[in-house]
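# nightly structure sweep
# worker-07 picked up a monomer target from the shared queue
# config: single-sequence mode, recycle default, output format = structure tokens
# input follows
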Amino acid sequence: MTVVERSIEFSAPAERVWAVIGDVPAAAACLPGLSLGAALDERSFAARISVSVGLLSLLYAGRLTVEEIDHERRRVAFGFEGVALGGLTLAVRISAQVSADGESASRLAIVNDIGLDVATTMLAGPMIAPTGALLLDGFARNIRQLVERAAAPPAP
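# output follows
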């Protein structure tokens, strides 16, 4: 597993950031390349993710599962497991926790665990961490946009 971590500061109260990140389907859709399909049950969805690792571009089909939603601690975790053509596998786990930083600011700590099959790891090994960082940076950027939209006054 390759682990990538980020901490993002917001000029928004923790409750507003939690309203975005606590909506797991909407938050998961912020992961670049991920598209959610039908709900399979109350905690999982059919999903696909397109990932480029070095020279490899792969489309994985699988399942996104909500692993944890803790409203009191403002913590959420979800995972994707999928298979690409040729049986190549991918497992991604995102965990995020919102903490207050005063009354009008907050921080979001995100951890991304990435697991790939041996063949992909051998081909793209040195590129896995930078790719995970790009995915996590895109996820953070998209979450920030959702939080900013939630703070914007409604259009007349």
